[in-house]
Amino acid sequence: MCQLLGMNCNTPTDITFSFEGFRRRGGVTDHHIDGFGIAFFEGKGVRIYQDDTPCASSPVAEMIQAYGIKSKNVIAHIRKASSGQISLANTHPFMRELWGEYWLFAHNGHLTQLDQLLTKPASTYHYYHPVGNTDSEQVFCYILEQLRQQFPEKPSKECLFATIQKLTAHISNYGIFNYILSNGEWMIAHATTLLHYIIRQAPFGEARLIDDDVTIDFAAVTTPKDRVAVIATLPLTANECWQQLARNEMLMFEDGAIVARDCPDETDVMSIKDALAMAAAVGAAPESVV
Amino acid sequence: MCQLLGMNCNTPTDITFSFEGFRRRGGVTDHHIDGFGIAFFEGKGVRIYQDDTPCASSPVAEMIQAYGIKSKNVIAHIRKASSGQISLANTHPFMRELWGEYWLFAHNGHLTQLDQLLTKPASTYHYYHPVGNTDSEQVFCYILEQLRQQFPEKPSKECLFATIQKLTAHISNYGIFNYILSNGEWMIAHATTLLHYIIRQAPFGEARLIDDDVTIDFAAVTTPKDRVAVIATLPLTANECWQQLARNEMLMFEDGAIVARDCPDETDVMSIKDALAMAAAVGAAPESVV
């Protein structure tokens, strides 16, 4: 199974601390070694850095770690290939332009019956075509295609959330669909099985990485007005209270806060063990991890 | 004025030597300090690395220099802003997807009367919208838009060359339009004023950078079958014979060789002095460089 990392904030923030722990799962503390990608919105522009080598040892990841790029919206992904070979064309996050904005998408899971979804007439690729051969890029193009066909001009945020929620519920019938999506203004996170988030705001405390012997005192590197939401497949820190998304829960973050939410059943939260077993059952995680 | 660098080869090749000289023009040997971008095709995928700091001192450029990424098609650009502010959204090369392929585009020059071109009915943005506010991204979207509207499916290479040549001739009426374009298979280079190229093949010799005290013996790092075309605004090496494109000449390279050419008048080659003066006259180069 791949792993996702997202950050949405009210002020440009350095993701170095979270990325330090996250990238170690790409070859040191976990087995997600089939490439990685990280993309930072800067205004309307995007820095997108990808590599098909393990994130833990990639020169690109080293550079990112040293550079300390600040952004209000970041999406990262470390890959354990389950659909599509290891290649740059199959490396998340995927990016396309919609309504004069760049959109970024990273997916974790496996959509086993995607062919059935994509052969329906309304879903032909007119505006958006996949370049690689992953289920993830196909479904990203499918979402953008549906949005563009329904809305020639960009609709309101509320309308977008409702439309993407409907599309997501439909796509979820075809497999495991944990994802993070952003247009640089907001960030949407959806869980079929496994996704966590935390919102950090004043009073800030200390946090300790799970994957490395690193501690940070957020109070020393923030202002009292800062608010940062971090989204990750599995919690990145040991001493903070991460919130797990319920099954089929979808959240929209803006300025580090939740601004829209859809949750069919708050009590339906999958155990991490069951989520990994489910991923393994469809070939998206090795048995040994379960 | 910005500067362009392209490489098209018959085998994946490391651009480190050329990029070493080129990047020094981004703050050391020349004044192109308003960001840079370089993109490498890898199969159907693209590594695209951009930064809004001067290329000569950018941590991203340092990483690229150390990594030694190999590719058959590379486009790089160092920017001296003449249209659009300094920001990542305005940093070349620009990338979009067309017919399930990524297309890359970098431009040098200034299209002063672009508004007149883009207000004509056929040129409205239907499939492609600019994200930033440069003339370069606008015209890239215009080219893709025209191609996509004319050809729902990808046409032959010959048809593409002829169509892009017609579009280019038309766009050239609106200002200076030196550019490099690639879909990962071929690379097109067009000069309104200033662009050079060289094709390196066996027997390989030594080359010495103009912008740095660096010499390479290509015979030691190539095989006899290798063929590499390098395209640059101004020659990168002092002891090789670079060919200058005539005014309005357009070349298509594939596997390091010229496979298509359009040249209205071979004898109409602009002097470097006149080309820089022309760029300065439209605000695309500082007077001091002329």
Automatic annotation (TrEMBL), chains A, B:
SUPFAM superfamilies: N-terminal nucleophile aminohydrolases (Ntn hydrolases). It comes from the Bacteria. The keyword Aminoacyl-tRNA synthetase does not apply. InterPro entries: EgtC-like (IPR026869), GATase_2_dom (IPR017932), Ntn_hydrolases_N (IPR029055). The keyword Transferase applies. GO terms for molecular function: transferase activity. Keywords: Glutamine amidotransferase, Transferase. Residues 2-290 form the Glutamine amidotransferase type-2 domain. PROSITE patterns: GATASE_TYPE_2 (PS51278). This is Class II glutamine amidotransferase. It comes from Ignatzschineria ureiclastica.
